[in-house]
C-alpha cells in the first residue's frame, strides 16, 4: 500500500471511530447516563433481559422459565441505568426516613396530629421530581430565627447551633416554597414570605435538594449540575452566586 493510500485509510478509520464515539455519547445522553450514575452502576451486570433485573438489584427475577440472559451484542445499558436510578432513589428515601427519625420538627408535627391540626403541612417529606436528580424536601421551622443565610434563593451558610442546623438543612439547598407557596428566587422576597408566614405560626420551607453528591446549583439556568460543569472559580463563589461554565460564558458576554 502506498503512503498516500495508507494515510487515507488511517483518516477514514479515525473518522469511523469518532462517529462511533459520538453515537455512543448520544445514546448515553438519551438514557440519562451521568458520571454519578456510572459510579452507581459500577460492576453491576444485567441478569435477565425479560424483566430487567440486574445483579445489584433492586428486585429478583421471577420470570417463568427462568432468566433470559443477554446476548453478546447486548450491553444491557438501559436496564443498568434504570436499576442504578432505582437504587439512588431508594437510598435517598432511606436518608429521608433517617432525617424524620432524628428531626425535632417531626416530633412536633406528630404532636400536632394528635391535636387534630393539618398533618400534611407539618410533615418532613420528600417529593421526588421526574429528572432523577433532585427532590423537594419540606422542613418546618418553629417561629424564631432561622439560623441560616441566603444568597439569591440558596442556602449559603448554616449557623452553628441554630434551627437550620438542628433540622439538618445543608448549604447549597435551594428554597422553592415558603409556607406552601412558590417564591421568587430573591432573598428579599423569601424573607418577606417567611415573616408573613411566621405571624401565623411555624413555617414550612420547601427546599430543592440533589439526591446524590457532586451536584451544584447554577443560579442562571436554575439546574443542579455535576461538578465537571463548573469552573473552580465559579464553585468557589458559592451557592446563589455560582454559574455553570456555559452560563458564565454568556454572562461575560453581557447576556445576563
Provide an overview of this structure:
By secondary structure, this protein is of the alpha+beta class. It has 3 domains: 40-102, no CATH class; 103-210, Pdz3 Domain (Roll), CATH 2.30.42.10; 215-252, no CATH class. It contains 8 helices and 9 strands. The chain has helices at 3-30, 35-41, 77-102, 104-114, 163-166, 187-198, 232-237, 245-252; strands at 126-128, 134-141, 148-151, 154-158, 174-178, 181-182, 203-210, 215-218, 223-226. The chain has a 5-stranded antiparallel sheet with strand order 1-2-7-5-6, with helices on one face. A two-stranded antiparallel sheet has the order 3-4. It has a two-stranded antiparallel sheet with strand order 8-9. Strand 5 (174-178) and strand 6 form a beta hairpin. Helix 2 (35-41) packs across helix 3 (77-102). The radius of gyration is 24 Å and the shape is flat. The chain starts with a helix and ends with a helix. 26% of the residues are buried. Mean pLDDT is 84; it is low at 116-130.
Structural class: alpha+beta
C-alpha Rg (nearest Å): 24 Å
Strand content is 15-25%
CATH homology-level superfamily of the largest domain: PDZ domain
SSE arrangement, N to C? HHHHEEEEHEEHEEEHH
* Regions with little confidence, pLDDT below 50 for 5+ residues: 116-130
CATH fold name of the largest domain: Pdz3 Domain
User: What number of structural domains do the residues give?
Assistant: 3
Amino acid at each position: 500500500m502506498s503512503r498516500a493510500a495508507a494515510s487515507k485509510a488511517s483518516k477514514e478509520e479515525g473518522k469511523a471511530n469518532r462517529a462511533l464515539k459520538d453515537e455512543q455519547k448520544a445514546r448515553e445522553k438519551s438514557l440519562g447516563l451521568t458520571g454519578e450514575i456510572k459510579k452507581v452502576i459500577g460492576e453491576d451486570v444485567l441478569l435477565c433481559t425479560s424483566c430487567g433485573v440486574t445483579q445489584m438489584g433492586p428486585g429478583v427475577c421471577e420470570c417463568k422459565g427462568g432468566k433470559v440472559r443477554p446476548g453478546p451484542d447486548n450491553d444491557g445499558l438501559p436496564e443498568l441505568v434504570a436499576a442504578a436510578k432505582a437504587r439512588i432513589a431508594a437510598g435517598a428515601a432511606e436518608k429521608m426516613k433517617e432525617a424524620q427519625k432524628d428531626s425535632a420538627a417531626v416530633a412536633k408535627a406528630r404532636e400536632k396530629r394528635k391535636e387534630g391540626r393539618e398533618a400534611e403541612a407539618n410533615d418532613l417529606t420528600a417529593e421526588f421530581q421526574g429528572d432523577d436528580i433532585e427532590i423537594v424536601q419540606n422542613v418546618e421551622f418553629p417561629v424564631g430565627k432561622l439560623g441560616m443565610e441566603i444568597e439569591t434563593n440558596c442556602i449559603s451558610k448554616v449557623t452553628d447551633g441554630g434551627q437550620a442546623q438542628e433540622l439538618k438543612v445543608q448549604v447549597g439547598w435551594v428554597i422553592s416554597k415558603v409556607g406552601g407557596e412558590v417564591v421568587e428566587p430573591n432573598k428579599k422576597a423569601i424573607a418577606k414570605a417567611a415573616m408573613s408566614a411566621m405571624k401565623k405560626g411555624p413555617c414550612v420551607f420547601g427546599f430543592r435538594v440533589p439526591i446524590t453528591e457532586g451536584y451544584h446549583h447554577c443560579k442562571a439556568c436554575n439546574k443542579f449540575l455535576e461538578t465537571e460543569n463548573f469552573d473552580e472559580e465559579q464553585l468557589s463563589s458559592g451557592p446563589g452566586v455560582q454559574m455553570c461554565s456555559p452560563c458564565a460564558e454568556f454572562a461575560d458576554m453581557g447576556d445576563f
